[in-house]
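Lab notebook, bench 4. Still working through the backlog of constructs that have no structural model yet. Next entry is a single chain of 269 residues. Request: give me the structure tokens for it.
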Amino acid sequence: MSSTPVKLISECFIKPLDDLSSEAKQPIHFTPFELAWINVKYGQRGLLFRKPPLPDYFSITTFLNHLQHSLSATLTHFYPLAARFTTQKQENPPSYVIYLDPENTPGAKFIYAKAGATVSDVSDPPDVPLLVHSLFDLNTAISYDGHTLPLLSVQVTELVDGIFIGCSVNHMVADGTSLWHFMATWSEIFRSEGQSISRPPVFKRWLLDGYDPIINIPYHHQDQFIERLEIQTFKERFFNMDVELCLMPEYMKNIQSDQELMSALTFVL
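Model written out:
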């Protein structure tokens, strides 16, 4: 089913539910560690669910509306994901300053799509089918594109018997751990139908004492530091772990004692 087409149904942009405070509107300058990801593609994570067995109890319209409202509430806490990048160019000496501008907030992208594939078509093959790549947006974008493209794009694809939620996030704004934090918070708000969260994000920048938080990139033109690499496509493979088995103390003890396996799992996650 790797050739199953994914049909775009609708798309919109979701903004934070509440207005930003004056403090939240301040520019967020990137550290050298974050600027190092400027040519790296967007990070992607996906969640696959089966539809309820009784279709009368599930409405895709109600589900999408609830997702959009809870996403808006989540973006109130994770407001940088709704913003865009801004660049200040200086001539003497020549340099670029790239920062995140919370006042430029077009919103996160929200896509609804449909595919004639099943949950089994996505999860059962040992190798990741090509279909999975079409369940995400912004597959070719790099972090620098955050000037014009959304920093976060969510694609909700309705399958024959399930739902796939694919999130693509700018790598200069969030790493894999931060993206899972965002998705866990979104899930918390979705289930509680409220706005309070148990673990707020932290946006305070860490810098060595005496260092300027504004990093100047010393180039005459952006072409000197922007590079779109042609990355070779490798065969990808699913790792399946039985939930009930993982909850057994003796099983987890065996995994933790296997250093090579723990290193591999840490790398994958």
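Notes after review: Residues 241 and 247 are 11 Å apart (CA to CA). The first strand starts at residue 6 and ends at 14. Flag for follow-up if needed.
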